[in-house]
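Team,

Forwarding the record for the chain on the shared tracking sheet. I've put the sequence and predicted structure together so nobody has to dig through attachments.
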Amino acid sequence: MSPPTETLTDNTAWAAAQPVLSVLIPFYRDDPTPLLVMLEREAKALNGRVEIVTLDDGGGDIALTRRAAEQVADLTLPARLVALDANQGRARGRNRLAALARAKHLLFLDSDMAPDAPDFLARYLAMIARDDPPVVFGGFSVKQMPPLRRFALHRALSLRGECLVAAVRSLHPEKYVFTSNLLVRRDVFEAEAFDESFTGWGWEDVEWGMRVARRYGVTHVDNAATHLGLDTAQALAGKYEQSAQNFARVVASHPEVVSTYPSYRLARALKRLPMVKTWRGLLKWTAIHPVAPLTARVLALKAYRAALYAEVV
């Protein structure tokens, strides 16, 4: 993949800032401006200690890029927009954001997140001042997301398996590491960047968490942000279909960790059954059609993902 052309837009506060924390926000055809507005509400209390770097990863939406640039210019927080002319993907884009950041600590925050606490960034600054932590995951929720019917399946999956308090996540610290709300010290990231060989959707952040947990540990705290970008059942199934090869990469690199995961054990069990592709289609149909009870749809989608992974384990 050849290096993309970059267009930089800096606001007036950028040049003179000496940040303690860099907030890194990639986006690809998603509007980051609501998140930028929410972060700006803390600007006065932060006193220039936080900068924002946001990256348009070659989305090709000129109007969206312009709108993001205008919002960056309006912020009193030091801020920069980097617009790429070609998509680089989730891992490479985040690595580029880290290279452009200036602070000792980096906060990866997805563009479809919304901080749950009004002092969200101030809490991270307090952790940095107190502990200088290598890696912290703050958690995420669906607290601010309306319970819309078309997103009911994704919401239910998130509540069951991802929207967990820190005490629960800490039992398997490497498993619950997502770039949606992830604080990383610069020296840690320089030693362990995201693996750019991952393509498509999924697992590149979890794989990174496995590497980093061994060397530095992962701290879990309750400083959540809401995931506003829930998917329809059909879209979520499509992402799972993209993720199988990435799952295979993680299995090959970290078999001792992945072998303890329920998804892996189920995939191995399903691999031994006949006519996998036939009943895999039935599982998908059950998951994406709202005629079945929600609990049954959740179980069907989890089994569908495991059936996809059965081909690569």
